[in-house]
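Curious: why this fold?
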Amino acid sequence: MKVSLFITCLGDVFYVNAGKATVELLERFGCEVDFPETQTCCGQPAYNSGYRENTKAAAKNMINTFAHSEYVVCPSGSCAYMFHEYQSMFQDDPSWREKARLLKEKTYELTQFIIDVLKIEDTGSEFYGKATYHTSCHMTRLLGVREAPLKLLSKVKGLEMIDLPERESCCGFGGTFSVKMPSISEQMVDEKVHHIEGTEAEYLIGADGGCLMNIGGRINRQKKPIKVMHIAEILNSRGES
């Protein structure tokens, strides 16, 4: 099975270890992984800010970049969903709309791919500690991936998972929302950190770099003893803690 890695901007710059873990996981399960070097930003920041026409250039680049791929796997539910959104951008252009549809059909968030395509529920991982999981808005509400990450985490040897109160609440990142509405975003992330701290978890796990960056930044500023980790790092672990 051939898989192309869509690393995302945040994965490329801030979450390199999550990218490595993603590749190692896929290769361990028999996938042949390639990395198309012409990939760039998927265009989501511009798209969500209302610059729909301007986003089409980025979308066309990404459609062409992954045209050869059998599957596209992304360690971010938010960015994976953006590929699903391309089809609606080209409603008046049948040729690009069809190309966008083909990309959508073969694009998966990492845990979604492991569960739905590889049919694996136990990655054979070991990670010792107490953790809670943050569900990102895009991944849960738009991409529709809800159970896959929790199912995989439940099989990790040594990992004690604790339900996060109000886990459906946004962390306040929302892409450009946190830049345009910083005071509101701060209150939202403070509430999220409060709930995380209430679980007494040692680790916060997530599957979206934006959420992890926002929550992790607030945790660090408040000097909370909670480590933030991407789910790929947990699923690829072999007894670390």
